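Apologies for my clumsy wording, but are you able to produce some protein sequence, whichever is easiest, and the tokens describing how it folds?
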Amino acid sequence: MPWNIAEHREAPSAGFDGKIWQFRLSDEDGREVVVLVRISGTAMATLAPALPEATRLARDTAGRTEVKKVLSWFEPPRVIQLGTMSDRALTEGGSPDKPDEAAQVAQIEAWFRERGIELWFDQIGSRWVALMIREGTRVGAAGAGRGLSRFEAARDAKFQQEAIDERMALSSIRSKTLVLPRRQSMTRSPRSLKHG
């Protein structure tokens, strides 16, 4: 159920040191929610080149770039907040997943944890990525599942990991296969026939 921006305006800061924009979102079922985008006062006063891209774009578009990222969520967050150190926005409330999918995502995350792998989710535009990161590592290459929702990305990551596990199991079996010595020839050589 995609959400649409029905209204967008600057909101009073009411004690918040920064800028707040209020978005009223509506869906095809007639539901409405209000999302606030808050950018810190320091980020508002900082020169654009010194800001993280997400904060700079949100500031330049009066919060619209960040709200567009949550239009595909099942329940958009109530607050999206950015500052001078925000590589990505912090969200409060909401859920990207449908209730039944949220439980399935939790099960898939538990399946990965049993294998010493963490799933890290990121939303890029309207698509989701589930990065598979070995516990205790923060650098290096990682596999990733992709999908239109967190559930689809998690499920894709699990399919990929199952394929990796299967290849590793087959490789282990192959390396443990015993190599038998060559059998002696059962035929006698011409020399043994003369003396035999």
About this structure: The mean pLDDT is 84. Helices lie at 41-45, 53-60, 64-69, 99-114, 150-176, 190-195.
